[in-house]
Design goal:
Helix content: over 70%
Strand content: under 5%
Length: 239
């Protein structure tokens, strides 16, 4: 991976740049690991009739899994400094498994070609926005605030559509979701440049590893949500 020295807010020594590059490599490696775990879990779950019966016999199992996901994210974020790197990575992997179970439903609803097409499109768009966030010299702080507001608006629209059931509103929310998570991909990638600064580690390589995990989680969430909204926008339902 290329050096990021020319894109940092201040000058680094050679050792600092190497450490920073290593943190970025870990971020994308952990993110890729999370996506692989989620994809395998989703496929295995969707291929198991007994798992499908258990998960979709009522709303309780999926609701419990969603609550567990929220708890894991909050715990990982709040206790990051106290957790060992190994425990933090296990929690991230556990979250990826739970999310794979939830995402198994898309394999039951959409055609395989739609899933592949949405994934490839998502991968290309994500890569483009992540590269932009990585190398841009612009301050994206204000964009982050705007996108967070848009995310709340999106959630409200989704809740409203649960009661209205409007196909037009579903299309609008899908487009909104794609735009918002594309923006968040650039914003979160740019934010890594600050979080991963060697000055924030205080010489603690273990802390650098844990920062890489939490940053990987944020990009993982951006990718998964972007994929799901792309699938809603362009996916074809099974007959």
């Amino acid at each position: 991976m290329a050096s990021y020295e020319g894109y940092m807010p201040y000058s680094y020594g050679v050792n600092d740049v190497e450490a920073l590059n290593e943190t970025f490599r870990k971020v994308y490696q952990y993110m890729a690991l999370g996506l692989i775990i989620t994809a395998i879990t989703a496929y295995v779950t969707a291929s198991s009739p007994s798992a499908i019966r258990f998960l979709f016999s009522s709303s309780a199992p999926m609701l419990i899994i969603a609550v567990l996901e929220v708890i894991l994210v909050i715990a990982l974020s709040a206790a990051l400094t106290k957790l060992s790197q190994g425990v933090a990575l296990i929690m991230f992997a556990g979250y990826s498994v739970l999310n794979g179970v939830l995402c198994s439903s898309v394999l039951l609803v959409y055609t395989a070609s739609s899933v592949y097409q949405a994934f490839l499109t998502t991968a290309g768009m994500f890569a483009a926005m992540s590269i932009y966030g990585l190398y841009t010299k612009r301050d994206l702080t204000s964009m982050g605030s705007f996108l967070r507001m848009g995310l709340w608006g999106l959630l409200i629209a989704l809740v409203i559509n649960l009661f209205v059931g409007s196909s037009m509103l579903e299309l609008v929310t899908s487009i909104m979701g794609v735009i918002i998570f594309l923006g968040l991909t650039a914003y979160d990638t740019a934010k890594i440049k600050t979080l991963a600064e060697p000055a924030n580690w205080n010489g603690d390589n273990t802390m650098a590893g844990k920062i890489a995990i939490i940053c990987a989680l944020e990009l993982y969430l951006d990718f998964v949500n972007l994929f799901l909204y792309m699938l809603r926008f362009m996916g074809k339902h099974k007959d």
